[in-house]
Design brief:
three-stranded antiparallel β-sheet; mainly alpha; about 70% helix; about 425 residues; 3 strands; disordered N terminus
Amino acid sequence: MDKHRASTTVDEILDIALESGMLILKNGGETYRSEAAMISIASSLGARSASAFVTPTVVMLTCSDTSGQSHTRIQRVTERTINLGGIARVNELARRLRDKPTTRSLSQVAALLCRIRNASVSSSFWIILTTAFSCFCFSLLFRGSLLEAAFAFLLGALMRSVLFMIAPFSPSSFVSAVTGGAVISLFSGLAVSVGFLSSSGNVSIAVLMALVPGVAIVNAIRDIIAGDLVAGSARLLEAFVVAAALSIGAAFGLVLFPIEAAYTTAILVQPEMLPAFFLAFFAAGSFAYFYHSLRRDIVWAALFGAFGWIVYLLVINSTAEPAAGCFAGAACVGLCSELASRIFGKPATVYIIPGIIPLVPGGGMYETMLFSVWGDGVAASATGFATLSAAFAIATGLALVSSLFRLIDWRPLRA
C-alpha cells in the first residue's frame, strides 16, 4: 500500500515537473533552463532523485520514489511561441519552491502551473500596433524620413496582420518568415513603383527587423554556454534557416520591382545620441511587449536595449567597425541583463532577447539578397560576410558576459 502511494505521488510530481519544463520550452526558453526547472521542482516536491533531458522538440524526465523505483515521462513539443512572461513565471515558481519546498501541496502547485499556462496575453490588436510602432522607430533609427517611417508603420501592421491570418494553418517558422519577407518586399516595391516612396531600402529593413530571429540566436548562445551543444547547434541552425527564409521572401519583391542600379546603401544609423537612445528604447520595448514580457521587465529590457545601442554608436564612431560595435553593444546588453537577473530573480533571457534586437543585422540580410538578385556576386559576398561578422560579434559579446557570470557562484535558476 505504501509502495503504491509512493508511486502515485511520484507520478503526480512527474506530471507537474514535466509541465513546467514544457511551458518553458513552448514559450521560447532555453533547453538548459527547462531541464533545471524540472529537476528543481521535482526535487522540491519530494522526488528522491530527478534527471532531465531536453531537446528543442522533446522533454524527458525521470524521477525515483522512496523505494528507489524509477518513473519516466516523455513528451514531444509540437507548438512553440514566444512568451517571456510565461518563462519568468515558471522560473519564479521553481525558485520559490526551492527556497520553501514544504509550503505548497501538489494540487496547489498544479493549479499555479495551470494559471501560468492559461494566463492572458496581449491581444492581436496590440501586438499589431506595437509591431507597427517598432517598425516606425527602426525607420527613424536608420535615418529614414518621416514619410518612410509612416509607411514602415503601415507595412509593419499589414505584415503582422497577414501572419496572424495564416497562423490557424500552423505554418512552420520557415513558411512564416518567407511570407513576412515577401509581404514586406512586395508592398515596399509597389510603393516605389507608384511614386509614393523614392526608395524601398529603409522601409524594407525597418520592417524586416520585426522578424529577425533574435530568440533563436540568444537561446543558441546560452544553451552552448551551458554545455548543451546539441540543442545549441539546433537553435543556431534554426536562426540561419529563418534568416535565409526572410531573404528568400524578400527576393520576391526585388524580382518583381527591381531597384534602380544607382542604389545607395540604406544601412545608415541616427548619429545623434539622444534621439537614437529614445528610438532604440521604444523599439526594444515594443519587442518586449509583443513577446509578452511582464510590465516591469518591459521597461528594463527597453532600457538595456537603448544602452546597448548607444555603446554601439560610440564604438563605431571611434573605430568605424560595425562588428566591434555589435560586440560591445551586445556585451553591454548582456551585462545589464545578467545583473538585473540577479537583482530581480528573473531569467536574463527576458531582458537579453528584446535588448539585442536593435543590433541584429537585418539590413545586411536585405542587402545581401539585393545584390544576389542583381547578380553582383562580389558585393553580395562582401555584404554577406559583414552580416555574418556582425552576427558572430553579437554572439561572442553575449557568450563572453554569460561565461563570466557563470564563474560566479550564483544560484542557477536566477541566471
